[in-house]
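User: These chains co-purify. Model them together.
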Amino acid sequence: MNIVLDPLSYPFFVRAVVASSIVGLVCATVGSYMVLRGLAFMGDALSHSAFPGVVVAYLIKVPFYFGASIAAVGTALAIGWVTRQGKLRSDTATGVLFAGMFALGVFLFSLIPNYVGDLFGFLFGEVLGIGLSDLISLAVLAALVLGTLVLLWKELLYATFDPLGAAASGLPVGRLDYLLLALIALTIVISLQSVGIILVVAMLVTPAATAQLISKSFGRLVGIAGAIGVFCPIVGLYGSYWLNSASGATVVLVESAVFCIVLAVTLVVERVGHPSAPAGV
Amino acid sequence: MSGSIGGSPASAGSPPTPAAPITPAAPAAPAPQAHDHATGPKAGGPMEAVGVPVPAIRLAGVTAGYGDRVALEDVDLEIPAGALVAVVGPNGGGKSTLLKLIAGVLKPWTGTVEVLGAPAGREAHRVAYVPQAELVDWSFPVNVWNVAMMGRYPRLGPLRQPGRADHEAVAAALERVGMLDRARTPIGALSGGQRRRAFLARAMAAEVDLYLLDEPVTGVDVPTQEAIMELLTAEAEKGKAVVATTHDLGAAVRHFRSIVAVNRRIVASGPAALLTNPEILSQTYGGHLLVLGDNLGILDDSHHHDDPAGSERHFHDDQRGGRS
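Assistant: Joint model of the two components:
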């Protein structure tokens, strides 16, 4: 019995590993921008606001991607719009909108006569059950998000670092803000099946936060975050397979553990008196 | 009369308001030229030679603010190419607001703002804006080279990656500000003066015709101040317009050729020597000013924090608005 190869004989496990690694990569990349903008809370908010979309999609029997995308992207744009009106702070607008949307989701969910297990899976994720068609949808959406970032990484970086300077030099900072929110929303939709509404914020934020501890350039930040994002789901799924634990939670726990280790190492290194980051991590 | 930038709007009833124009472009006003060496772009400013030069910046009847609070009222102002202008005034007096209007990132409630011959924002790729140091996240994971390269992004456009010309422009800009040997240093590890120079390099790498700088020499040591001003003076002499806000009246008089004094309105504009006029100073700072011989100092600027004009408020608003 081979601890590594054995699970790979099951197609569902292979699909889950592929899906989770794609999700991890996209989350880590988008999450790098989120962390630099102080938008960590936004990830939590948008994932919760996708819930009514998932429920409605289930009720009218369309793929959940459609419902979740409309609800999450719609909420993202609404938060952006309310904030730009200048009447409310961003976190206030976020709090109001996401709680309302999540309540709508729970409300609709409670109206469904018979309890439905796979819908419940969206709260905590059930990547081991992902089908081939869902995997293909996921890969297409992931390519869309990553492709947009490849095209616009410079502009998003400038607008994140110095919004005033970027706007003055002609970059459409307002539209870039909306775009980033929409990308975050799409990323969450991609992640829902793997890690679920409650835990997706960890996939977004934890790899980038870990990378931020040890990188002083944006390229390295994204690179390290991406590597963590791809690697941790693989370890997590093996763990989940052997321990028979919840897959989404196990993946998130692996990412959290990596964060704790890196944090501890950087603290020790600083204490010892080498302010520079350890090269090997 | 409108050619004199500050003259008319100082309607607070101020006969002493000097209104020596920053621009010589006023019809039939040959005399003031002598005052004002800011006007002549000595090297390669063809527009001055022609009969009707287009000013680099023109504000007409501009009122602007944040939310429902007025920050600037009734502003008429012209600044020619080749000018080196300090914008002075109390906190909350509208210095940064004026800069943002010119940058096109804040739309006026009324009036028009023209920059480089077009509505503000239209010629944005020819404008560089350097924010106040306090508004920059210095823990951001970028180094000096990355910051300077950002100056090239707008002209590159979304699809193209920086090429050889961009690398050369960035290297040349860093060389000019004396930061080439620091190119790989993260911005968080720089001193205050080095940080300012890194941002100045970004502006220079962008190869613009108008520099807008928010407090470029505040809180840096004297040698750095001199170095920065030398670079900006050289840019003005090339025919580029340089507009900088400053709290430092001494620096404004020493280093700039022209000034615009604002306190919700334009109090005065013209040669930098205007700032030695006590009457203009007291109108600008509302009496919270100490004049000791040649030394100028703001005695008590803090009272402005309490007045409804809002003092530092709009900086925080900006920061929030910009990042959300």
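The two ends of chain B are 43 Å apart (CA to CA).
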